[in-house]
Amino acid sequence: MSIEGLITAEKPDSHQWTCRLTLIEKQNVRTGKTSPIKFMPMILQDSAGTRVQATAFQGDIEGIDQRLSLYSTYLISNAYVKRITEMRYCVDVNYPYVWSFNRRTLIQDVDPAEGVDFRELAESETAPFHTIFNAYQHDARMNILGAIVKKLPRTFIVTGGRQRVAWDVVLVNEECIPIPFTMWEEFVGKHGAEIEKILHAGGHPLVLINRVAINLFQALSLSTRYDCHVELNPTGVRALSLKKWISANAGKISLMVQDKVYNDALSIIAHPLSQPQCTLSGLENNLL
Known about the structure:
Layout: E1 3-5, E2 17-26, E3 30-31, E4 38-45, E5 51-57, H1 61-67, E6 73-77, E7 80-83, E8 97-101, E9 106-109, H2 119-124, H3 132-137, E10 144-151, E11 156-159, E12 162-172, E13 179-184, H4 185-200, E14 206-210, E15 213-217, E16 219-223, E17 229-232, H5 237-248, H6 250-258, H7 265-270, H8 280-287
Parallel strand pairs: 1-2, 5-8, 13-16
Antiparallel strand pairs: 2-4, 2-6, 3-4, 4-5, 6-9, 7-8, 10-12, 10-14, 11-12, 12-13, 14-17, 15-16
Protein backbone atom coordinates (compact mmCIF):
# COMPACT_ATOMS: atom_id res chain seq x y z
CA MET A 1 0.00 0.00 0.00
CA SER A 2 1.39 3.42 -0.99
CA ILE A 3 1.85 6.09 1.64
CA GLU A 4 1.17 9.66 0.51
CA GLY A 5 4.02 11.99 1.43
CA LEU A 6 5.86 15.15 0.42
CA ILE A 7 8.64 15.44 -2.15
CA THR A 8 11.40 15.61 0.48
CA ALA A 9 10.46 12.14 1.78
CA GLU A 10 11.21 10.45 -1.53
CA LYS A 11 14.75 9.08 -1.99
CA PRO A 12 16.32 6.53 -4.38
CA ASP A 13 15.67 3.74 -1.86
CA SER A 14 12.04 4.73 -1.16
CA HIS A 15 9.36 2.14 -1.96
CA GLN A 16 5.59 2.24 -2.41
CA TRP A 17 5.29 6.00 -2.17
CA THR A 18 2.83 8.53 -3.58
CA CYS A 19 3.08 12.32 -3.84
CA ARG A 20 0.33 14.86 -4.45
CA LEU A 21 1.91 17.29 -6.92
CA THR A 22 0.95 20.18 -9.18
CA LEU A 23 2.60 20.63 -12.57
CA ILE A 24 3.94 24.20 -12.69
CA GLU A 25 6.19 23.92 -15.77
CA LYS A 26 6.31 21.76 -18.87
CA GLN A 27 9.34 22.62 -20.98
CA ASN A 28 9.86 21.91 -24.67
CA VAL A 29 11.18 18.57 -25.87
CA ARG A 30 14.87 18.81 -26.62
CA THR A 31 17.88 16.65 -27.48
CA GLY A 32 20.89 16.01 -25.28
CA LYS A 33 24.07 17.97 -26.00
CA THR A 34 26.21 14.84 -26.26
CA SER A 35 23.64 12.27 -27.40
CA PRO A 36 20.60 12.05 -29.72
CA ILE A 37 18.28 11.11 -26.84
CA LYS A 38 15.16 13.29 -26.65
CA PHE A 39 13.76 14.38 -23.30
CA MET A 40 11.07 16.67 -21.85
CA PRO A 41 11.76 18.30 -18.45
CA MET A 42 8.90 19.28 -16.14
CA ILE A 43 8.76 20.94 -12.73
CA LEU A 44 6.26 19.88 -10.07
CA GLN A 45 5.52 21.34 -6.65
CA ASP A 46 3.93 19.94 -3.51
CA SER A 47 1.75 21.66 -0.91
CA ALA A 48 4.82 22.49 1.23
CA GLY A 49 6.34 24.48 -1.63
CA THR A 50 9.14 22.02 -2.48
CA ARG A 51 9.86 21.56 -6.18
CA VAL A 52 11.31 18.71 -8.20
CA GLN A 53 12.31 18.34 -11.82
CA ALA A 54 10.89 15.26 -13.51
CA THR A 55 11.85 14.17 -17.01
CA ALA A 56 10.26 11.92 -19.64
CA PHE A 57 12.53 10.35 -22.25
CA GLN A 58 12.17 9.15 -25.83
CA GLY A 59 9.09 6.94 -26.33
CA ASP A 60 7.54 7.98 -23.01
CA ILE A 61 7.38 11.68 -23.93
CA GLU A 62 4.18 11.70 -25.98
CA GLY A 63 2.11 9.79 -23.43
CA ILE A 64 3.35 11.85 -20.47
CA ASP A 65 2.89 15.10 -22.41
CA GLN A 66 -0.74 14.25 -23.19
CA ARG A 67 -1.38 13.01 -19.67
CA LEU A 68 -0.18 16.06 -17.72
CA SER A 69 -1.69 19.55 -17.93
CA LEU A 70 -0.22 22.77 -16.58
CA TYR A 71 -1.43 23.71 -13.06
CA SER A 72 -3.35 20.45 -12.65
CA THR A 73 -2.74 18.32 -9.55
CA TYR A 74 -1.97 14.59 -9.60
CA LEU A 75 -1.07 11.68 -7.36
CA ILE A 76 2.30 10.45 -8.64
CA SER A 77 3.71 7.01 -7.78
CA ASN A 78 6.64 4.86 -8.97
CA ALA A 79 8.81 7.62 -10.44
CA TYR A 80 12.51 6.80 -10.65
CA VAL A 81 14.46 8.93 -8.13
CA LYS A 82 18.11 9.83 -8.74
CA ARG A 83 20.52 12.03 -6.79
CA ILE A 84 21.78 15.12 -8.63
CA THR A 85 25.52 15.17 -9.30
CA GLU A 86 25.62 18.79 -10.51
CA MET A 87 23.65 21.26 -8.38
CA ARG A 88 23.14 23.61 -11.32
CA TYR A 89 20.41 21.19 -12.41
CA CYS A 90 18.68 21.39 -9.03
CA VAL A 91 15.38 23.33 -8.97
CA ASP A 92 15.11 23.31 -5.16
CA VAL A 93 18.10 23.53 -2.79
CA ASN A 94 16.11 21.55 -0.22
CA TYR A 95 15.84 18.51 -2.49
CA PRO A 96 18.96 17.42 -4.44
CA TYR A 97 17.19 14.77 -6.51
CA VAL A 98 15.54 14.46 -9.92
CA TRP A 99 12.79 12.12 -11.06
CA SER A 100 12.16 10.23 -14.28
CA PHE A 101 8.66 9.39 -15.54
CA ASN A 102 8.07 6.30 -17.68
CA ARG A 103 5.31 3.81 -18.45
CA ARG A 104 5.61 2.32 -14.97
CA THR A 105 4.90 5.69 -13.34
CA LEU A 106 1.35 5.81 -12.00
CA ILE A 107 -0.41 9.14 -12.54
CA GLN A 108 -3.84 9.68 -11.02
CA ASP A 109 -6.03 12.77 -11.41
CA VAL A 110 -6.94 14.82 -8.36
CA ASP A 111 -10.25 16.66 -8.21
CA PRO A 112 -9.49 20.36 -8.98
CA ALA A 113 -11.30 21.29 -5.76
CA GLU A 114 -8.70 19.29 -3.81
CA GLY A 115 -5.68 20.50 -5.77
CA VAL A 116 -3.36 23.45 -5.16
CA ASP A 117 -3.48 26.29 -7.70
CA PHE A 118 -0.05 27.84 -8.17
CA ARG A 119 -1.01 30.35 -10.89
CA GLU A 120 -0.74 33.33 -8.56
CA LEU A 121 2.61 32.10 -7.23
CA ALA A 122 4.01 31.78 -10.76
CA GLU A 123 3.06 35.37 -11.58
CA SER A 124 4.30 36.70 -8.22
CA GLU A 125 7.78 35.38 -9.00
CA THR A 126 8.11 37.65 -12.05
CA ALA A 127 10.38 40.71 -11.96
CA PRO A 128 9.63 44.24 -13.21
CA PHE A 129 11.27 45.31 -16.47
CA HIS A 130 13.33 48.06 -14.81
CA THR A 131 15.40 45.35 -13.05
CA ILE A 132 16.45 43.61 -16.28
CA PHE A 133 19.78 45.43 -16.67
CA ASN A 134 20.67 44.79 -13.03
CA ALA A 135 19.93 41.08 -13.54
CA TYR A 136 22.18 41.13 -16.60
CA GLN A 137 25.04 42.68 -14.62
CA HIS A 138 24.78 39.98 -11.97
CA ASP A 139 24.17 37.12 -14.43
CA ALA A 140 20.93 36.36 -12.60
CA ARG A 141 18.04 34.33 -13.94
CA MET A 142 14.71 36.08 -14.00
CA ASN A 143 11.05 35.52 -14.86
CA ILE A 144 8.93 38.19 -16.54
CA LEU A 145 5.31 38.86 -17.44
CA GLY A 146 4.57 41.05 -20.45
CA ALA A 147 2.26 41.70 -23.38
CA ILE A 148 3.26 41.27 -27.02
CA VAL A 149 2.32 44.53 -28.73
CA LYS A 150 4.08 44.07 -32.08
CA LYS A 151 5.70 41.39 -34.22
CA LEU A 152 8.78 42.64 -36.07
CA PRO A 153 9.56 41.58 -39.68
CA ARG A 154 12.39 39.09 -39.12
CA THR A 155 11.39 35.42 -39.12
CA PHE A 156 14.72 33.67 -39.83
CA ILE A 157 18.38 34.09 -38.94
CA VAL A 158 21.48 32.28 -40.20
CA THR A 159 23.75 30.96 -37.43
CA GLY A 160 26.37 28.24 -37.59
CA GLY A 161 25.91 27.95 -41.33
CA ARG A 162 22.21 27.10 -41.18
CA GLN A 163 18.93 28.97 -41.27
CA ARG A 164 16.99 29.00 -38.02
CA VAL A 165 13.50 30.24 -37.21
CA ALA A 166 13.61 33.34 -35.01
CA TRP A 167 10.71 35.70 -34.32
CA ASP A 168 11.25 39.17 -32.90
CA VAL A 169 8.37 40.71 -30.94
CA VAL A 170 8.04 43.72 -28.65
CA LEU A 171 7.02 43.22 -25.02
CA VAL A 172 5.51 45.88 -22.77
CA ASN A 173 4.43 45.85 -19.12
CA GLU A 174 2.70 48.31 -16.76
CA GLU A 175 5.92 50.30 -16.43
CA CYS A 176 5.41 51.19 -20.10
CA ILE A 177 8.88 49.85 -20.90
CA PRO A 178 9.11 48.28 -24.39
CA ILE A 179 11.78 45.67 -25.00
CA PRO A 180 12.51 43.32 -27.94
CA PHE A 181 12.07 39.60 -27.29
CA THR A 182 13.33 36.88 -29.65
CA MET A 183 11.55 33.53 -29.74
CA TRP A 184 13.64 30.70 -31.17
CA GLU A 185 12.51 27.70 -33.22
CA GLU A 186 10.64 25.31 -30.92
CA PHE A 187 8.98 28.19 -29.06
CA VAL A 188 7.72 29.62 -32.37
CA GLY A 189 6.51 26.17 -33.35
CA LYS A 190 4.60 25.82 -30.09
CA HIS A 191 3.14 29.32 -29.70
CA GLY A 192 3.67 31.18 -33.00
CA ALA A 193 0.35 30.40 -34.69
CA GLU A 194 -1.71 31.46 -31.66
CA ILE A 195 0.33 34.65 -31.19
CA GLU A 196 -0.22 35.67 -34.83
CA LYS A 197 -3.91 34.87 -34.57
CA ILE A 198 -4.34 37.15 -31.54
CA LEU A 199 -2.26 39.97 -33.07
CA HIS A 200 -4.17 39.84 -36.37
CA ALA A 201 -7.42 40.11 -34.40
CA GLY A 202 -6.14 43.31 -32.78
CA GLY A 203 -5.30 41.74 -29.43
CA HIS A 204 -2.14 41.63 -27.36
CA PRO A 205 -1.19 38.12 -26.17
CA LEU A 206 0.35 37.91 -22.71
CA VAL A 207 3.43 35.79 -22.03
CA LEU A 208 4.88 34.53 -18.76
CA ILE A 209 8.54 33.63 -19.36
CA ASN A 210 10.65 31.73 -16.84
CA ARG A 211 14.46 31.97 -17.03
CA VAL A 212 14.51 34.46 -19.89
CA ALA A 213 17.89 35.17 -21.51
CA ILE A 214 19.14 38.78 -21.37
CA ASN A 215 21.28 39.93 -24.30
CA LEU A 216 23.38 43.05 -24.73
CA PHE A 217 24.66 42.83 -28.30
CA GLN A 218 24.25 46.22 -30.04
CA ALA A 219 21.11 46.78 -27.94
CA LEU A 220 19.33 45.35 -24.91
CA SER A 221 16.94 42.52 -25.72
CA LEU A 222 15.51 39.30 -24.33
CA SER A 223 15.30 35.84 -25.85
CA THR A 224 14.27 32.29 -25.12
CA ARG A 225 16.97 29.88 -23.97
CA TYR A 226 17.11 26.11 -23.94
CA ASP A 227 15.53 25.79 -20.46
CA CYS A 228 12.93 28.54 -20.82
CA HIS A 229 9.30 27.96 -20.02
CA VAL A 230 6.89 30.18 -21.95
CA GLU A 231 3.24 30.26 -20.90
CA LEU A 232 0.93 31.98 -23.36
CA ASN A 233 -2.01 33.95 -21.94
CA PRO A 234 -1.65 33.21 -18.20
CA THR A 235 -4.85 33.72 -16.23
CA GLY A 236 -3.78 34.92 -12.78
CA VAL A 237 -4.65 38.21 -11.07
CA ARG A 238 -1.48 39.98 -12.27
CA ALA A 239 -2.11 38.86 -15.83
CA LEU A 240 -5.66 40.20 -15.65
CA SER A 241 -4.36 43.52 -14.30
CA LEU A 242 -1.81 43.79 -17.13
CA LYS A 243 -4.50 42.99 -19.69
CA LYS A 244 -6.67 45.83 -18.36
CA TRP A 245 -3.70 48.22 -18.35
CA ILE A 246 -2.87 47.38 -21.97
CA SER A 247 -6.47 48.06 -22.99
CA ALA A 248 -6.57 51.39 -21.11
CA ASN A 249 -3.26 52.56 -22.62
CA ALA A 250 -3.70 51.37 -26.20
CA GLY A 251 -3.06 54.83 -27.69
CA LYS A 252 0.13 55.40 -25.70
CA ILE A 253 1.44 51.95 -26.62
CA SER A 254 0.65 52.46 -30.31
CA LEU A 255 2.61 55.73 -30.36
CA MET A 256 5.53 54.13 -28.54
CA VAL A 257 5.67 51.30 -31.09
CA GLN A 258 5.36 53.76 -33.98
CA ASP A 259 8.34 55.73 -32.63
CA LYS A 260 10.33 52.47 -32.21
CA VAL A 261 11.17 53.30 -28.62
CA TYR A 262 12.03 49.62 -28.11
CA ASN A 263 15.27 50.15 -30.07
CA ASP A 264 16.59 52.19 -27.13
CA ALA A 265 15.47 49.95 -24.27
CA LEU A 266 18.93 50.02 -22.68
CA SER A 267 18.89 53.76 -21.97
CA ILE A 268 15.40 53.45 -20.47
CA ILE A 269 16.30 50.57 -18.16
CA ALA A 270 19.99 51.14 -17.39
CA HIS A 271 19.75 54.87 -16.54
CA PRO A 272 23.29 55.69 -17.84
CA LEU A 273 23.72 58.74 -15.60
CA SER A 274 23.24 56.59 -12.51
CA GLN A 275 25.89 54.04 -13.53
CA PRO A 276 29.44 54.17 -12.08
CA GLN A 277 31.54 56.70 -13.97
CA CYS A 278 35.26 57.32 -14.42
CA THR A 279 37.58 59.62 -16.36
CA LEU A 280 39.28 58.58 -19.60
CA SER A 281 42.62 58.44 -17.78
CA GLY A 282 41.07 56.24 -15.13
CA LEU A 283 39.71 53.93 -17.81
CA GLU A 284 43.17 53.66 -19.38
CA ASN A 285 44.71 52.75 -16.01
CA ASN A 286 42.11 50.02 -15.47
CA LEU A 287 42.97 48.46 -18.83
CA LEU A 288 46.70 48.27 -18.10
